[in-house]
Amino acid sequence: MVEGGGERKALGSAPWGSRLLGPANEGALSRRVRVQTLLTVPLILGNLVGIVVAIALIGAVLPGPSVFSRDLILLNFLATPLYAALALVIGTTWGTVWGVRTLRWAIDPDHVPDEKERRAAARVPRRLAFQQAALWIGGMAVLTPLYGVMDPAFVPKLLLGIGFSAIVVCANSYLVAEFALRAVTARVLDATPSRQARGVGVFGRSALVWVLGSGIPVALLMVVAILALCGMDISTARLAVCVLSLGGATLVFGGMLMAQTLAATVAPIRGVRNALRRVENGDLDAAVTVYDGTELGELQSGFNRMVQGLREREQIRDLFGRHVGHDVAAAALERNQELGGEECYAAALFIDIIGSTTMAASRPAPEIVTILNEFFAIVVDEVEHAGGLVNKFEGDAALAVFGTPAPLADPAAAALSAARAIRSRLTGAAREFDAAIGVAAGRVVAGNVGAHRRYEFTVIGDAVNEAARLCELAKSYDARVLASENTVNAADLDEQKHWELGESVTLRGRLQPTRLAGPRP
């Protein structure tokens, strides 16, 4: 799941930062088995390694009497192995039963955890670490007195050896549980109203791992040195063995813990980085799974909110472009728009359906809407193909402009070409409607008209009025397309050859006669 109700899924083979955690579409049963395996197997192996390290420290590294004597056979080969085996069985059973009970809700992929379930799931890594610590402390509490009865000098050896292993094993248990439960954590975070970071955070987690994996082992070395300074009989060779062994263990286990911490830190960052690359390539469906409860989870969540904002902005931009035209929208986004306009040379194309009043009175409204949509689809297609802009839809008519807001080298030729193309498509197939077209070019004022709170882009000028009058007149001509002589003369020669001049008429509302031009048959 990702933020936003899981409507958009994070794509990729490792939605939780590692292929070991499986794909996002994995079945509930398979994921349960996978999580249980990732929890149980590393914890058992970690405890076994910890036991071996403790035995090596107590038996061969730390100074003091040797535990490998005939007097300690029962302790070495009965009590210690028996407790170790019992601890492994108890720890595995305890952790499995408690974990299954706590995370039972996660079996249902559609279940949304409540507050109690979310809190319990968030405590699982800590509880597992505490369980491991309790078993190791229990071993210390049981075995140290037994060996201490035989020789009090065994007490510091067992405390230091078992304590070192316990610290490393418990830290490893926490990191393993945190890793294995990322899919569950993602669902918890997805259902959590607040996305604020909880717990110790990235810095605190790194500092804690350093203390447990490096700081305390180094402190153990210092304790050995203090014992030597206080008069304990420690040979130079034994002291060198202690330093080398504890130093090597610190490098190995401290490095392993730090590597786990760094992997947990880098995985969310890598996921966001890969998703950012997809966004740079234009994929606004990119999303990352939020599975980290630290500041990195806020980074993941913030990325998803950012992409959601980009998607909304792109939707608004697309909707804005559909309403006013993409050229007008682009101009509005590129510069600060104000009321008023500027004078420029442009061409206007006015088109109107013939007999629309009768058609509207004799047909149902849904059918009329279908006819108009089919009609305007042709108009928009050909106008935009010629580089123009459909500026207005007025019932069953439309006004297109060429040369503003996007400049054209030859607005008159573009408008005339669009008029011929529209007429050709309207007559090229049997349609239930016909339309008249008027084209004119000249100096116009293009800009924003309205109020400061609500305005629209429009074109005002004699050319627009002339195009409207020519469209009205064209309804009585067989060709259904009329242009003014001045418009044809302003176009390039390639376009002029498609037109022929006709009579001169005085258009309604105008004082000077206009010589008409129509497309050649």
List the helices and strands and how they pair.
Elements: H1 28-61, H2 73-102, H3 115-122, H4 124-150, H5 154-180, H6 182-191, H7 201-229, H8 236-280, H9 295-324, H10 326-334, E1 340-354, H11 356-362, H12 365-385, E2 389-394, E3 397-402, H13 411-427, E4 434-450, E5 455-460, H14 462-474, E6 481-484, H15 485-490, H16 493-496, E7 499-505, E8 514-519
Parallel strand pairs: 4-6
Antiparallel strand pairs: 1-3, 1-4, 2-3, 4-5, 6-8, 7-8
Q: Compute the gyration radius: what is it?
A: 40 Å
Q: Can you summarize the main beta sheet? A: 8 strands, mixed
Strand content: 5-15%
**How does the helix and strand content classify structurally?**
alpha+beta
Percent helix: 55-70%
Shape: rod-shaped
SSE topology string: HHHHHHHHHHEHHEEHEEHEHHEE
Beta strands, count: 8
Which whole number gives the mean pLDDT? 84
Number of helical stretches of at least 4 residues: 16
Uncertain regions spanning at least 5 consecutive residues = 1-11
| Span between termini | 64 Å
